[in-house]
Amino acid sequence: MIQFFLFQGVNIKxxxxxxxxxxxxxxxxxxxxxxxxxKGSVYCQIILExxxxxxxxxxxxxxxxxxxxxxxxxxxxxxxxxxxxxENFKCTIYENRPTVCKAYPLSTNIDNVVYYDINCPxxxxxxxxxxxxxxxSPSFDSYIFDDYQIRYINTHRKLEDFNNFDDFELVTTINxxxxxxxxxxxxxPYITMHLDSLxxxxxxxx
Length: 206
Hints:
Strand order of the largest sheet: 1-4-6-5
Protein name: Flagellin N-methylase
Strand content: 25-35%
Structural class: alpha+beta
Mean pLDDT: 90
Number of strands: 15
Helix content: 10-25%
């Protein structure tokens, strides 16, 4: 069982490697569990391809891994409530939601293997077939399932270009995870989108 994935935080979500056909029924009977900071959805790690699609709605922040590696993330909640775009348990930016949200209850990792969240109420014996014979359905597909390992490594290399701890300032700490903003002199499109995205911090109780 995998306990640490694209969705990260309290880690209520539990992912297993896909070893069978996966069916998805509906979100109608779920109270937006996958969007609730109290149930584990605090932040998710993003890759370079995600920046342009998320910075207009979510704050892009940075964390430092155990070995000092820089990671780009988006804040999904304040850890104490739902995502700010949830109203009546529905997503108000559904068509423009982050890629990780579009992929859920599936996820991938640097091993290029597809996983599914066994705690998602939408996983059922019948419904829309989202994985068949180990392949993600085209109607449910996303670029994060296409060579994710390469995309992850490319992101790591780009972020290391400006990975200097002194160039970052602490923004907030949620569930003992520290989130930072960039205050250095490096300039590139990703830093620009990061800085522009900080306006969305006002949507969170932090």
